[in-house]
Design a protein that fits this description.
Blueprint: H1 23-26, H2 66-83, H3 88-129, E1 132-134, H4 142-145, E2 163-165, H5 166-170, H6 177-205, H7 214-221, H8 232-247, H9 255-270, H10 274-277, H11 280-299, H12 302-313, H13 319-339, H14 363-393, H15 400-415, H16 419-422, H17 425-433, H18 467-490, H19 500-524, H20 529-532, H21 544-560, H22 564-574, H23 580-597, H24 602-610, H25 627-630, E3 643-644, E4 648-649, H26 650-659, E5 664-668, E6 676-681, H27 682-695, E7 704-706, E8 722-723, E9 734-736, H28 741-751, E10 755-760, E11 763-769, H29 770-783, H30 823-836
Parallel strand pairs: 3-5, 7-8, 9-10
Antiparallel strand pairs: 1-2, 4-7, 5-6, 10-11
Helix pairs in contact: 3-8, 3-9, 3-11, 3-13, 6-8, 6-15, 7-24, 8-9, 9-11, 11-12, 11-13, 12-13, 12-22, 14-18, 14-19, 14-21, 14-23, 14-24, 15-18, 17-19, 18-19, 19-21, 21-22, 21-23, 22-23, 26-27
Length: 839
């Protein structure tokens, strides 16, 4: 199937060909079922002695059955343990199986660290290529080119004869208007070239290499199958295009895509070990560890990577996965440290060296930065989702290359005149985090030396700002506006694009501005009661770099709604262990403010926008609907498609498969009794029948299919029966029709179910699938009526709250769900409801 040509992708977890975003256009005349099994890890088919290839596997854009996969793994483990005492070879195989988990995460960590170092080095070199080139060694970036120069001065440490700008090479001028214009033109040329090459490679070779990848990884870790998303072509193209996208100067980062790169490594290495290649649930344990390794090399934060995997992306995180995630993050960080891509003996570029204490009165500006971060996060999520939705629904989305070129051109044209937007975003964050010491020559450190200070407490006391600082503040204000606008339009374009670094840059800019303002306020008004106790004249009281750090954490928290993992990542990132309390205050404030406008983070919002079947464990279900209200079929739908255990022929089953698109069928005793026997998957039925026709004689269309333990007696002239009991799930999950949906949703979340059958006294009434759950939650958000309407809400669809005798009526039916395409049926239900509640 050509994925790019199918307008209904992505499919939901059950294989139905209607995406979630199309449900409101299609009414309710559909049903689809999923298969789940507790005991399907036993022998798969009776018709052959060995399992048939393909039985028990999953199609693309389907959801795995966690229960069946865990049972398969337990059966495999029991089989290995039972054989390990038979011979030395079996014992060796048992040891190999036990250590395969550690081997695969070790390989994943090694590959992730090596690729991250390669990406960092290549991105730095290509970023500097926009401004010039090193003639003595073409593979050196600007900083490395001037390391060995003897002609570099302290004031102009970034200038050396070996480094030539494009204006010097082309027109022979280092200064003047002509030089500026030539460097401007070459900057735009290289930015457009890198962006065009990146989007072209993504479009031609690996469409899945675009974007951050974290929303899709969250969905995959929840059990969804997206073939090729973690494949070798995606890994290769994402690695190359990530370097190009970062070098182009777009308002994006490489940290989010590094998680995707690490998960690609984990997926590829998992195929080397049968324990993981044949079990989708076990493979997701490796992917959880790989995501931890990705954050470890992205931020130099191994512990933060483990917490990020636990808090943000993982759906199933047992204790052994925690240990292996920690080990994978350790190995990846060790490899990156060995490569030393930044030349500073650190894992990251912006490591702070100051350890100035913070004071209690500073909590107020820290909390203000948290409020700003929450407001920024809420604004960004709404604006970016609105733009992405418009891109999907208009012709503009059909020209991804043109969109990338336009965004890159606007970014380059506006960014070049401002030195803070021209800088690589990581370099900008480094400069904003850095405190002003005696060796700093940045305009942010252009303070006037006050010779009238009566007491020198520190080497670098608080000083009045000079003209350079005020000029830098105006440039930072313009850079803040530029970053906010361009990040909204950049995240989601068809190149690898991370969100961590742009969000941190926005927060760092705002934080540095606030820090300088508080610093000057404390200097000029040190006799105020809030400063009097801590800020003496000549004391080093305020550290603006700390405010940049807190602002960066607040803005990233407002966008992603991370809390614990974010604080740990930031203090590992900067080395500022003593600043945990300010970071915690700002991050929690940003989360509270952001949650006031919507509880979804940016990744959950993109999951919902793309229609992925993801049940968020953080979302609360507080409604009072029952399983009977959600199950399919409804009254206007065709009857539930079922199989009988011994009354159907091969031709009957094949006709049912061809005439329906359901992914599984309940098996009942007979049409008369409707008693549930089990559940059979469509894919397993198809494979089993095709294999029986090829490998068994006497199997024809009129052959009786038997799901019972004993074959019923047949006439002597009857063709040979086909026994399919072993592909039958004998213990499907069932709930009664009166089970509250709150419990059903919890079952789906915690057990990872694909479907659940609804019964009444053992008789099958219908089925609830993961798609039905997601559709129901979406309808409740948009169309549910309040449980107890206010007194002035006089609407005749509601019965009065109290009867004529003054006693309260029963509220069991006071919630009316309003399906979109069932207006006629709903009216009948309302009349019945009103009549039944009349006293």
């Amino acid at each position: 199937m050509d994925v790019s040509s199918d307008p209904y992708l992505p499919y939901d977890g059950g294989g139905d060909n209607i995406p979630l975003r199309e449900l409101h256009k299609r009414g309710t005349h559909y049903t689809m079922t999923n298969g789940g099994s507790i005991n399907s890890s036993t022998h798969l088919l009776d018709l052959l002695d060995e399992p048939i290839p393909g039985v028990g596997t999953y199609d693309d854009f389907h959801t795995i059955d966690w229960v069946r996969e865990k049972c398969k793994d337990r059966e495999r483990h029991r089989r290995i343990n039972s054989k390990k005492k038979e011979s030395a070879w079996e014992m060796t195989k048992s040891l190999y199986d036990a250590w395969s988990g550690w081997l695969v995460v070790t390989l994943t960590g090694l590959a992730s660290g090596a690729l991250a170092g390669l990406i960092d080095i290549a991105a730095d070199w290509m970023t500097d290529l926009k401004e010039g080139i090193c003639l003595s060694a073409l593979w050196f970036n600007h900083e490395q080119c001037c390391w060995g120069s003897n002609e570099t001065t302290f004031e102009e440490r970034d200038k050396c004869p070996q480094w030539k700008t494009w204006a010097e090479l082309i027109i022979g001028q280092a200064e003047g208007p002509g030089s500026y214009i030539m460097n401007y033109i070459m900057y735009i040329f290289w930015a457009l070239s890198f962006a065009f090459l990146a989007v072209s490679l993504v479009k031609i070779f690996a469409p899945y290499a675009c974007g951050s990848g974290i929303p899709e990884i969250k969905t995959i870790l929840s059990g969804f199958i997206i073939r090729g998303y973690l494949g070798k072509w995606t890994l290769l193209i994402k690695t190359i295009t990530l370097v190009l996208a970062v070098a182009s100067g777009l308002s994006l980062g490489k940290e989010g895509p590094l998680v995707h790169v690490a998960c690609c490594c984990g997926n590829i290495f998992s195929y080397l070990f049968p324990k993981y290649s044949t079990n989708e649930a076990k493979k997701r344990e490796v992917l959880s560890a790989a995501s931890a390794a990705g954050v470890s090399v992205a931020f130099g934060a191994p512990i933060g990577g483990v917490l990020f995997s636990l808090e943000e992306v993982s759906y199933y995180f047992p204790l052994k996965t925690l240990w292996r995630s920690f080990f994978a993050a350790l190995v990846a960080a060790f490899v990156l440290r060995s490569i030393n891509p930044f030349g500073n003996s650190r894992l990251v570029l912006f490591y702070v060296e100051y350890h100035t204490p913070w004071y209690l009165f500073e909590l107020f500006p820290f909390i203000l930065l948290g409020v700003f971060g929450g407001l920024w996060g809420a604004f960004f999520i709404r604006a970016n989702i609105a733009w992405c939705r418009r891109r999907k629904s208009t012709k503009f989305g059909k020209y991804p290359v043109l969109e990338v070129i336009i965004v890159a051109a606007i970014t380059a044209v506006i960014a070049f005149p401002n030195p803070y937007t021209r800088l690589n975003t990581s370099e900008l964050i480094k400069e904003l985090f850095t405190d002003c010491g005696p060796l700093e020559s940045s305009s942010l450190c252009d303070y006037r030396n006050d010779m009238n200070a009566s007491k020198i407490v520190d080497d670098i006391p608080d000083r009045p700002a000079g003209t350079g600082v005020y000029s830098a503040i105006w440039q930072l204000c313009l850079a803040l506006i530029f970053k906010i606008i361009m990040t909204v339009f950049t995240f989601g374009i068809k190149v690898p694009s991370g969100l961590f670094i742009p969000s941190m840059a926005i927060g760092a800019i705002a934080g540095r501005i606030v820090g300088i303002a508080v610093e000057q306020l404390a200097y000029y008004h040190h006799d105020w009661f809030i400063f009097k106790e801590w800020c003496e004249v000549g004391a080093d009281c305020i550290t603006p770099g700390l405010y940049a750090m807190v602002g960066a954490a607040a803005c990233l928290g407002g966008v992603t709604r991370m809390t614990v993992s974010l604080v740990v990542i930031v203090f590992e990132l900067t080395g500022g262990l003593e600043y945990i309390v300010p970071l915690m205050a700002a991050v929690m404030t940003s989360k509270w403010v952001g949650d006031a406008f919507g509880r979804e983070g940016i990744y959950e919002a993109h999951i919902r926008l793309n229609g992925y079947p993801f049940l968020d464990a953080k979302e609360e279900f507080t409604h009072t609907t029952l399983a009977a209200d959600v199950m399919r079929p409804r009254r206007s739908d065709p009857p539930l498609a079922v199989l009988t255990q011994d009354n159907m022929t091969v031709e009957d089953i094949e006709n049912l498969i061809n005439e329906t698109s359901y992914n599984g069928f309940p098996v009942i005793m007979s049409k008369e009794s409707q008693r549930l026997v089990g559940f059979a998957l469509r894919r397993d039925l198809t494979i089993a029948i095709e294999s029986a026709r090829k490998k068994q004689e006497g199997i024809v269309g009129s052959s009786r299919v038997c799901f019972a333990q004993h074959t019923p007696s047949l006439p002597a002239e009857s063709p040979r029966p086909l026994k399919l009991r072993s592909i039958l799930d004998m213990s499907p999950f069932t709930v009664t029709d009166h089970t509250p949906m709150e419990i059903v949703v919890d079952i789906f979340r915690k057990l990872g179910l694909r479907q659940c059958l609804v019964t009444h006294n053992g008789i099958v009434l219908g089925i609830i699938t993961k798609k039905n759950i997601l559709e129901h939650l979406e309808q409740l958000k948009q169309h549910v009526e309040p449980l107890a309407p206010p007194w002035h809400y006089n609407k005749k669809r509601y019965p009065p709250s109290y009867g004529p005798d003054g006693k309260p009526r029963s509220r069991i039916n006071n919630v009316q769900l309003k399906p979109i395409a069932e207006e006629r049926e709903e009216t009948e239900e309302e009349v019945h409801l009103l009549n039944s509640t009349t006293l």
